[in-house]
C-alpha cells in the first residue's frame, strides 16, 4: 500500500497516511478535525541511465549517418541525370 501526503489548509498541517490506491483524495483532517485535508501530488523522480539520453551521446553517430545519406542521395541524382543525358545524346 502506498503512502500519501495530505495537507489541511485550515490548520496548515501536513501528514502522511498509508492507504490503498482506491482511497478518496480528501478526508477530514486528522490533526484539527475541522478542515478537509487534500492529497498532495508530487512528480515522481526520473533517472535516465545508460547512453543515448543526451545529445552529445549520439552527435557523432548522427552526423556520420547524415553525411553518408546526403552524399549517397546526391550521387544517385547525379548518375540518373547523366544517364538520361547520354540517352538523349544517343538519340
TrEMBL record:
Q: Where is this region: Disordered?
A: 63-91
UniProt biased composition (Polar residues): 63-76
Pfam families linked: Zn_ribbon_8
Q: Where is the composition biased (Low complexity)?
A: 78-91
According to the entry, every stretch annotated as the Putative regulatory protein FmdB zinc ribbon domain falls at 1-42
SMART domains associated with the record: CxxC_CXXC_SSSS
Origin: domain of life = Bacteria
Protein name as catalogued: Putative FmdB family regulatory protein
Q: Which organism is it from?
A: Tepidiforma thermophila (strain KCTC 52669 / CGMCC 1.13589 / G233)
Amino acid at each position: 500500500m502506498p503512502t500519501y501526503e495530505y495537507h489541511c489548509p485550515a490548520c496548515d498541517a501536513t501528514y502522511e497516511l498509508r492507504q490503498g490506491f482506491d482511497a478518496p483524495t480528501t478526508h477530514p483532517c486528522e490533526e484539527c478535525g475541522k478542515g478537509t485535508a487534500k492529497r498532495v501530488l508530487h512528480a515522481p523522480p526520473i533517472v535516465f541511465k545508460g547512453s543515448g539520453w543526451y545529445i552529445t551521446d549520439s552527435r557523432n553517430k548522427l552526423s556520420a549517418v547524415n553525411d553518408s545519406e546526403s552524399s549517397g542521395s546526391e550521387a544517385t541524382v547525379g548518375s540518373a541525370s547523366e544517364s538520361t543525358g547520354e540517352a538523349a545524346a544517343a538519340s
